[in-house]
């Protein structure tokens, strides 16, 4: 059986490798992506004095290029992996892993997974800035509840699942909202096929993160070792980000008609 120190040494190399994979993909997205952009809009009420009525008005605030957005969440993960593998930070990372907690993972996910959720939402037709902020915030809270789950259970003899269930609620709500927009667009026949695959594959992968946590705390099979669960988290993160990035690239960013 591999010793803890040997596993940690392997995790250090694993983080370096995963950081390189994310970095290379991010660079490819920046170089090869086209100019495809989506509008970010703001809706407000406008008072018309002549008719004494309030009308809903919508204005475009900014056009966001999709390519740099995809590259951004890849670069976030690359930076996180490289930092964790660096000398002093790795010692902090390893000490936390021995205690069954990884602060860095949840903070990175709070930003990168939230940006991924925003990207999925925009591909489904969500352009309102307030809605996007809400989706970002809920996804970030889902991941911060993941941190709270690990932090809280540092001091419990029996696993307390409160933070886990709160995180599940925060995590499912963005998918409910995005699905409403997705179905509305799909009913008009305007939804590209690749978005169907993104919705299905990313929802499935997001669920696997929660399942990984359950297996860790239930200590099922190889998950009895917290470090194995950490390895799975790293693999799932690369998989989810790569699947989203390349589906978006193939769907819109590599096309010459945008």
What does this structure look like?
Strand 1 (37-48) and strand 2 form a beta hairpin. This protein has a domain at 39-64 and 101-253. With 258 residues, it is mostly helical. The protein is 72% helix and 10% strand. The longest helix is centred in the first third of the chain and has 29 residues, at 4-32. The protein has 8 helices and 2 strands.
Summarize the structure.
With 258 residues, this protein is mainly alpha-helical. The chain has a domain at 39-64 and 101-253. It is built from 8 helices and 2 strands.
* Mean pLDDT across every amino acid position: 91
> What is the global morphology?
globular
Task: Give the strand line-up of the largest sheet.
Answer: 1-2
Beta-sheet strand percentage?
5-15%
Roughly how many Å is the radius of gyration? 20 Å
Percentage of helical residues? over 70%
In this structure, how is the largest beta sheet organized? Answer: 2 strands, antiparallel
Structural class: mainly alpha
What is the tally of helical segments?
A: 8
Distance between the termini: 54 Å
Order of helices and strands: HEEHHHHHHH
Uncertain regions: pLDDT < 50 for 5+ in a row? none
Would you report the number of β strands?
A: 2
Oligomer: single chain
Indicate the topology.
Elements: H1 4-32, E1 37-48, E2 53-65, H2 66-85, H3 87-98, H4 103-123, H5 129-152, H6 162-187, H7 193-218, H8 226-253
Which keywords apply here?
mainly alpha; 258 residues; 2 strands; two-stranded antiparallel sheet
